[in-house]
Amino acid sequence: FRVLLLPGDGIGPEVVAAARRVADAAAARFGLTLEYEERRIGAAAIREEGAPVSKETLRRAGEADAVLLGAVGDPEFDGGEVRPEAGLLALRRELGTFANLRPVAAIPALSGSSPLRPGVAEGVDLLIVRELTGGAYFGEKEEGEERASDLSVYTRGEVERVARVAFEAARGRRGRVASVDKANVLATSRLWRRVVGEVARDYPDVALEHVLVDAAAMHLVTDPGRFDVILTENLFGDILSDEAAVLPGSMGMLPSASLGEPGSPGIFEPVHGSAPDIAGKGVANPYAAILSAAMMFRHGLGRPEAAEAIERGVEAAVAAGCLTPDLGGSSGTEEAAEAVARRVA
Amino acid sequence: FRVLLLPGDGIGPEVVAAARRVADAAAARFGLTLEYEERRIGAAAIREEGAPVSKETLRRAGEADAVLLGAVGDPEFDGGEVRPEAGLLALRRELGTFANLRPVAAIPALSGSSPLRPGVAEGVDLLIVRELTGGAYFGEKEEGEERASDLSVYTRGEVERVARVAFEAARGRRGRVASVDKANVLATSRLWRRVVGEVARDYPDVALEHVLVDAAAMHLVTDPGRFDVILTENLFGDILSDEAAVLPGSMGMLPSASLGEPGSPGIFEPVHGSAPDIAGKGVANPYAAILSAAMMFRHGLGRPEAAEAIERGVEAAVAAGCLTPDLGGSSGTEEAAEAVARRVA
Ligand SMILES: CC(C)[C@H](C(=O)O)[C@@H](O)C(=O)O
Ligand SMILES: CC(C)[C@H](C(=O)O)[C@@H](O)C(=O)O
After folding, report:
1. Where is this site: Important for catalysis (chains A, B) (predicted)?
2. Are residues A236 and A262 located together in one domain of the fold?
3. N or C terminus: fewer CB in 10 A for chain A?
4. Stretch among A125-129, A170-174, B250-254, B304-308 having the lowest mean pLDDT
């Protein structure tokens, strides 16, 4: 399997190195061969190549079996003309990764660090399926001194394909989809609601509810346990998935997968950012990147057994108290990676 | 003062009657005369008048000194062609109420019902200033079978005037404004960020920070105490203000004011919805509507002393244990209104 590594900025290189260490252990155990290529994205690419992602990197990504990404973003470029984040958006568009999957679940060993009351926090076990290549992110923009505009567009086909991903995922979980929109105000949301309702007819075994985005933002805090799969459009997904990400207490544990059409390479990356304040110190929490590698084996390379071995390895390492500072421990990035790799092997 | 009452749907009529009872007590105490007119909005207006708000009602609203609104929305019209919510949007546009103010603060007597851990919940004391007449709510829409779009537009003037409201409010509070946008993706957000930064120069005594909307959605849950005034555009404000609204534990306590140019009538309404499940039972929590009447005295009629008397009256009634079922008590709507009115008188 060819894996393109895009470590990116801040703590990206450290956590990607950790994920690679664990992926290699899993590959060895299950008799797989991973061939890596490493390239730049984000601020690192702006500095060395003059653009947040080069054409060549996009081309190589398209030829890979999967892309393992670290983090993108650097305060140096805040408010500038060239934004590191543009590299990530270009990569998503190039690979057509229309479905972003973000599982969020309470981790019993870490429940003390949740901002929610104990009774509320424990119920969190949800999957956000966020549309990733449409909406206001990629619509026409106008930007003047006096006036600016963003156009959000959705087509029936765009809604349908991501809805199918959500319904399929619900089948492997608790069989419920909450589709989030703002149908009382937005035209795109009314199309969204109609098409999701039509797709639902093909999944009579899955229960569908429609939830307004403002109500969803409330329910996530008051009663996150009511959600199984949350399906939503790009911008709402950006907001709700970050809101959901803090519920278990540490973002440092959350992986993501961005998937396109079958056969095209997915992007696997931790949900956390580049955390420039702790970059290079060897203390970054690598579990989210490691769990992203697990998602890569499952969704990108079709090797669920390797994914499960990694996930069990992380659980065991955490339960054994191998915790980085953000989790209240004193383990370093490499130590945590080592602890998981040993268990995977 | 001429006050237009728009009770609307569900529990709206009950809580508006309660707010009127208290407003009358405040008027009597401070020697003011309130003249009421009552008209329909929302589902009630669709049923009786064929539209969610009539032209005549919009005209009367424009002639009033303030509009006191209950709630809008009825499941009967969910997904229909004519939506009760359209009445509210038309009213906002007619009156040009571009600034929606939503104060959210922890209520010590009710802290047990917050979904947040004790240490986190207590710090909540923030004011959301939401732009209310621009953005994707009022931009051009296209709605077809195969494709739909929403255009979000902001002009410099629209951003500037609502930013001034936020900076002025911060001066009377803890002197901090967090402006929330998605400047790494949206053109409107980049205009927003630029103009807010320019307005900030006129307020050297107020500290400004720019926060991305996804980060803001996280911080609201993990560390709400870091926020004083949150300034944001229409759609982000819809989502974040509902997320913030559940932090203190009960939405039944939260008022709002929607203000336009000086001299034009504002809209004062509780943040909660029409709650059709408990409508007509006499158990709806009237405090949010009563506190909205207080905001009406302060921001709409220029009588802060009446506002304060009402606010102290609500605090005292709550502290005395006069709690509706949603707050864990067994008081009815009228009883709670009576308890406040007595204290105000
Ligand atoms: C970096 C940024 C452009 C990106 C987004 O908004 O999609 C990030 O917030 C995410 O959620 O992956
Ligand atoms: C009823 C609806 C149109 C409205 C909005 O989205 O503005 C409501 O959610 C609000 O926040 O006042």
Report:
1. 137, 182
2. no
3. C
4. B250-254
Residue-number span of the structural domain to which B190 is assigned: 125-246
Residues of chain A numbered 269-298 and touching chain B (CB < 8 Å)? none
Residues A227 and A273 in one domain: no
Contact B246, B147 (CB under 8 A): no
* Per-residue model confidence (pLDDT) at position B250: 80
Domain-located, residue B296: yes
Do A267 and A242 have their domain in common? Answer: no
Check if B205 is active-site: no
Number of domains in chain B: 2
In a domain? residue B26 = yes
Q: Which residues of A are catalytic?
A: 137, 182, 214, 238, 242
pLDDT tens per residue, range B144-199: 999 999 999 999 999 999 999 999 999 999 999 999 999 989 999 999 999 999 99
Indicate whether this model's pTM tops 0.90: yes
**Partner-chain contact B143 A190, CB within 8 Å:** yes
CATH code where residue A194 lies: 3.40.50.2300
The answer to whether residue B120 is domain-embedded is: no
Six token digits for residue A123: 């119920």
Q: Which atom of ligand 1 is nearest to the CA of A238?
A: 11
Closest ligand to C-alpha of residue B236 is: 2
Q: Verify that B3 and B94 share a domain, yes or no.
A: yes
Q: Which of B179, B211, B246 represents a domain boundary (last residue)?
A: B246
In a domain, A110, yes or no: no
Backbone angles phi, psi at A39, to 5 degrees: -140, 175
Query: How is residue A130 written in tokens?
Result: 């966020």
Find out whether B275 is annotated in a ligand binding site.
yes
Paired with A103 in beta bridges are A127
* Domain C-terminal end among A246, A263, A293: A246
Q: Whose CA is nearest to atom 11 of ligand 2?
A: B238
- Say if residue B134 is in the same domain as residue B228: yes
Tell me how far apart the alpha carbons of residues B184 and A141 are, in angstroms, rounded to a whole number. Answer: 13
Cβ–Cβ under 8 Å, residues B256 and B148:
no
What is the Cα–Cα distance from A120 to A114, expressed in whole angstroms?
10
A-B C-beta contacts closer than 8 Å:
167
Mean pLDDT of chain A: 96
Helix axes B304-319, B333-344, angle to 10 degrees: 130
- Buried b / exposed e over B230-241, threshold 16 CB at 10 Å, is bbbbbbbbbbbb
Residue from the list B117, B146, B151 with its beta carbon closest to the beta carbon of A151? B151
Return d(Cα B260, Cα B245) in angstroms, integer: 23
Question: Which of B148, B187, B246 comes nearest A150 by C-beta?
Answer: B187
pLDDT tens string A262-283: 999 999 999 999 999 999 999 9
Whether B85 lines ligand 2, by a CB cut-off of 6 Å, is yes
Q: Are residues A174 and A215 in the same domain?
A: yes
Same domain, B132 and B238: yes
Domain containing residue A51: CATH number: 3.40.718.10
Cα–Cα distance for residue pair A146/B139, rounded to 1 Å: 16
Give the C-alpha separation, B190 to B199, whole Å: 14
Residue A270, classed as helix, strand or coil, is strand
Inter-helix orientation angle A333-344/A304-319, to 10°: 130
Taking a contact as any Cβ pair under 8 Å apart, which residues of chain A between 209 and 238 contact chain B?
213-215, 217-218, 220-223, 235-236, 238
